[in-house]
Amino acid sequence: MDRRPVMRGAGVVLTMTALVAVLAACAATPAEAPTTTASATASPSATASATPSPAVTPTPTAAADLRPLVPSGDPVPIAAGLEAPWSIAQLTDGSIFVSERDTARILEIVGGQAVPVFTVPDVVPAGEGGLLGLATLELDTGSYLYAYFTAGEGNRVVRMPLAGSPGAHTVGAVETILTGIPKASNHNGGRIAFGPDEMLYVTTGDASTTSNAQTLDSLGGKILRVTETGGVPSDNPFPGSPVYTLGHRNPQGISWASDGTMWAAEFGQDTWDELNRITPGANYGWPVVEGLGGDPTFVDPVVQWPTDDASPSGIVVVGSTVFLAGLGGERLWTASFEGAAAEWYGGGQLGRIRDVVRGPGASVYLITNNTDGRGSPRAGGDVLYQVNLVPAG
Asked: Parallel, antiparallel, or unpaired for β 113-119 and 131-139?
């Protein structure tokens, strides 16, 4: 079967050269960034009980896609009136879908308007739980829309056949593919994405029970890896288990560089938020370590931020730059693979930012999250923006 999963974070920017000349004159200047810390080494050490898993096969990449990129100009509003939006998903034809955490609605952005497509059944919103991550999978035999949500008995992942055309999509029967993920009012994780290996990756929080993160008996505090139907891949690092990595508190952002390297962002508790390079079977330390620990048993983050400066949710890798959506920090962060970080659109310009994904050409989309109960709602609700990118320097 020819699989063609949507992987915006691993694509190739083919239109960058044409855009540079137009956009360079209006490149934004980053605000002076608070102190961030890069780890001296980012080489992960897998846990002793993990079975080595083959690395993701690198994706051939155009040279233009390897350069560092930065935002250019002010964000351009695409659609407003969103209510606690959580995730952005796209199809290769340019269709854009957004999830709303508390209404359980999946919206399609059509002509600048947010048009309801489907209300996901069995969603039980509470605290940080509700309808969270979305992902799409496009096959020759049909397309699917995947969703991660909080139900009565825990968090789960479902998929729905997706039909129709841009502006007129419909979904079919809901099929549950993954259950048993613990839930709580806080720390539900919730980001889902297909990787370059065509497997589905799922971030889960520790559900406010820190011990979940360090045991393979719980799916909480992990990054999971499953097939498109929820099966356990034979090459997972822990045989028979969907667990891909452990020792996480509340990861909500995952993306891949063009060479197949996986990155993840994680909410810290009181001290440090993290950007991590992900390796199969590795242990990222929570609750023993928060931020840089220097303990060879665990993997140190590549970048750490004070929790008031970041609170990172969605991330996307474009070129050689990781873009991170800052909730509590109320800004967009950029980070290099070596750990240099800069901030953009701070000072209350956008407020809380929940997700960021790759857009068309040299751009990203992001959504604000000021209506989620922790921000200051603004007239017109939350907004989907497009941000143009130019080469750094």
From this structure: unpaired
pLDDT at 30: 52
* CA distance readout (Å), 353 to 92, 121, 183, 368, 385: 24, 26, 23, 4, 10
333: Cβ contacts below 8 Å, ≥ 6 apart = 305, 310, 312, 323, 324, 326, 341, 342, 343, 344
Q: Which band of pLDDT confidence, cut at 50, 70 and 90, is reported for residue 393?
A: confident
CA distance 369 to 376: 9
- Residue 365: beta bridge partners? 357, 386
Please tell me whether the overall predicted TM-score, pTM, comes out greater than 0.85 for this model. yes
Residue 138 has pLDDT above 70, yes or no: yes
Whose tokens are 């609700």? That residue is: 381
Neighbouring CB atoms inside 10 A of 68's CB total 16
Distance from C-alpha of 373 to C-alpha of 90, rounded to nearest angstrom: 26
Strand partners, 25: none
Amino acid identity, position 68: P
Least confident of 65-69, 215-219, 306-310, 365-369: 65-69
Quickly count helices (H) and strands (E) in the chain: 1, 27
Contact in structure between 23 and 16 (CB atoms under 8 Å): no
What's 46's DSSP letter? B
The end-to-end CA distance of the chain, in Å, is 44
Q: H helices within the chain, ranges in order?
A: 16-23
Q: Which domains are assigned to the chain? A: 3-391 (2.120.10.30)
Residues 202-226: tens digit of each pLDDT: 999 999 999 999 999 999 999 999 9
Range 339-365 average pLDDT: 97
Paired sense of beta strands 331-336 and 321-326, if any: antiparallel
Which DSSP symbol is given to 367?
E
Rounded CA separation 143/76 (Å):
29
